[in-house]
Structures are given as C-alpha cells and as structure tokens.
Design brief:
The protein is an alpha+beta fold. The chain folds into two domains: 1-41; 42-134, GMP Synthetase, Chain A, domain 3. Helix content is 36%, strand content 28%. The chain is built from four helices and five strands. The strands form two sheets. The protein has a three-stranded antiparallel β-sheet with strand order 1-2-3, with no helix packed on it. The protein is elongated and about 70 Å long. The two termini are 38 Å apart.
C-alpha cells in the first residue's frame, strides 16, 4: 500500500434535488446536506460537527478507562464576512460537559479531561488542527464528454 493511499480520506457527494446533496463515505455512511431549508445539515453545521466530533472522540480515547455518566459537546461559531466580503467562521468554541462516577477510577479520568482536551486541540484532533493552520484548498472541475 502506498503512503498516499494510506493517508487519503474521502467522501462522495451526489445531488439529490435543488440545493440538496447526499454525502457518502466508503463504509456506507450517509448524511443529507442542504442550505438549511429543512432538517438537512448545512456545510457549516457539518464543520461544527466535525470539530466537536473530533474533539470528543479524542478526549474519550484518552479517558476511556471509565465510562462517563455524561458526555455532551456543544460547538458554535459566528459566520461573518471578512474585509474582502468573503464568508468565514470566527470565534469557534467547543464546549465539553463530561461527568464520571465519583469512584476512584472515575475521579482519575475526570482529572485527565483538561489534559486530554489540550492534547486533542494542540496535537491529536485533525479537524481543529487543520482549521487553525493554513491549509490550501484546491477546487477543480472534471470535464465531462456528456452533452
């Protein structure tokens, strides 16, 4: 297996209607995407989901010796225009609400949460690291021979 194929992550989107798409991963997972006219997730909401999900999964992996009683994540950001008029999100905030049992192992895991959050944010969460660091995005068009 080449190094590039082992690092590649991809999804495929198919248009299902006006301003509606279905995103699929290679494992059969499906998410509906739209512009917010119904219950479909918007692309911005999916970015927020990715930030919260990556943080949550990473923190959970680092505190997995005890099952949490509560593990809730809220993610928010403000959609604004920069000086050039381009859209972007700012003031991104991921808030974790985690509680463990008050036994010895639960207390140990509760004490690890702050460190796990820092490790997630500074090193382990691919999504937040990518959002924070400049990462060029190329958009290309496939030329089809269909009329």
């Amino acid at each position: 297996m080449s190094d590039e194929s082992s690092t590649l992550r991809s999804v495929h989107l198919v248009r299902t209607g006006a301003m509606e798409y279905r995103a699929e991963n290679g494992r059969g997972g499906v998410i509906s995407i739209g512009e917010g006219q119904n219950t479909d997730f918007t692309p911005v909401e999916l970015l927020l989901v990715a930030l919260g999900g990556c943080t949550g999964l990473t923190v959970e992996a680092l505190t997995k010796r005890a099952e949490p009683r509560r593990f809730d994540i809220a993610v928010e950001g403000h959609k604004v225009k920069d000086p050039s008029g381009a859209n972007l999100l700012e003031k991104l905030l991921v808030t974790l609400d985690i509680a463990f049992d008050n036994d010895e192992i639960g207390q140990k895991m509760a004490e690890r949460v702050t460190d796990a959050m820092e490790k997630s944010h500074q090193k382990l969460c691919t999504v937040s690291r990518t959002v924070e660091l400049p990462s060029p995005v190329r958009v290309v068009q496939v030329r089809s021979s269909e009329a």
